[in-house]
Amino acid sequence: MRILLVEDSMSLCEALSTVLQKEKYEVQVANDGEAGLQLASSDIFDLIILDVMMPKKNGFEVLSEIREKRISTPVIMLTALSQEYNKVKGLDLGADDYLPKPFSTAELLARIRALLRRKTDATPDNLITYGNVSLNLSTLQLVNQSENKSVKLSQKEFDIMRYFFEKPRHVAEKESLINKGWGFDNDF
Fold first, then answer.
1. Of these four, 55, 59, 81, 93, which has the most CB atoms within 10 Å of its CB?
2. Could you tell me the pTM of the whole model?
3. Span 21-47, average pLDDT
4. What fold is seen in the domain 124-182?
5. Of 22-31, 43-52, 75-84, 130-139, which one has max mean pLDDT?
6. Is the pLDDT of residue 161 over 60?
7. Which class would CATH give 2-121?
């Protein structure tokens, strides 16, 4: 699972990256709102963790632009702005969760698992279907329902096919496909 962490505090960013990587998440970091928006717009993430108070663009602006682009990636907002009206603003702009600082890493990890579980559970029978072809999320099989044929995919093949199934009318850029299948740190 790939997580985009948009946080301007280098020490918090480093600590969260370490915790998330220990939990086997792949983490990409942006340290300001503009860089975060650019990465989020590539739409190759399973989750975005977004700070509010950042240089160049604040988290509310980034979230608003992400949702205007119809990017439905789940977003957890992390911020020192813990007043109710800030929480309401973030949730109304499209955040899936809002966690005020300071927070425990155990709670953050639980919220991440809950959001990712919800995203996976949203498909009936763990299938994503497009036309007469389905992708089984449990067995990693691609199924042609009209011919009743299936093929077992490797993990990389599955990751790339899932990307196509989740964005059927989206023109995928080469970099997005490489990142989805091979990760951010590659030599392509």
1. 59
2. 0.67
3. 88
4. Arc Repressor Mutant, subunit A (1.10.10)
5. 22-31
6. yes
7. alpha beta
